Structure formats: structure tokens, C-alpha cells
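Attaching the record inline, Q. Sequence:
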Amino acid sequence: MRKKFICLFLVICALLISSTSVLASDLGARREDERMRWSYIQVIASDLSITSSGKATASAQISANPTKVDEVSIRATLQQNVNGSWRDVTSWDVSKSSNIVLLGKTYYVASGYSYRVSCTFKAYVNGRVVETATLTSNTVKY
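Structure, as predicted:
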């Protein structure tokens, strides 16, 4: 719980720094905030949760420097582990002419497998990709 609170706090701080006001959600399962590593991207996060009925919720977020980028995007792919290999189940794409994008999608999964969300995050300037980052969420067994 403390880890989720810290991650949420950092996400909210990043959102307050940016020029866009967005309602932040708790995406604390996997998060990277390494400004020294990127020139344009500031924060990325991804999370996967699955209810007892098999409803998987994939969440992801990107926040980029508002003075440097004019668009950001996320491609999130839900993956299933079958006999030790990860196979793609479904994918979602979201992009926005802004410095922040949140993704939240649901999908019903089969029981007896482990799942994760693999995300690719991109920052754009004048329609050209200037930076790409990847992050894989927590793994959830259902």
C-alpha cells in the first residue's frame, strides 16, 4: 500500500508540473521516472488487475515535457503466458495532442494462465517520433 501511495504521489507531482490538468489514477504497479534517461518523456506507468470473474483491467500512462512535445501515444498489449511463452491476446492504442495520455481498457481473460501488459510509449514533435520507451506491467495469475 505504501508503494502505491508513493507512486501515486509522484504521478500527481508530474501532472501538477505539466501545463495540462488531468485526474490522476493509481498506476503504481510498474512505473519509471528517470528523467536522466529520457530527453522528452518524464513518467511512464503500467498496471494490470484481474477480478475474480476474469475481468482484466489494463492501465497505462505517459507524461512528457510540455515545452518539448506536442503529442504522446501508448500501445498496450495484453499478453498471456502459455507453456512459458508470452503470446499477444489483444492490443489497444491511444494518442493525444497533449503531453499526457492515460489508457484504461478491459478484457475478459481465461482462467489458469498468467497475464501482463506490455506497453510502448512514444513522444512526438511535429508528427515525428522523437522518443520511445517500453515498460511491462506486473504479472497477474488468474
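The chain is about 10% helix and 55% strand. The beta strands are 30-32, 41-50, 55-64, 71-82, 85-96, 100-108, 114-125, 128-136, 140-141.

More tomorrow.
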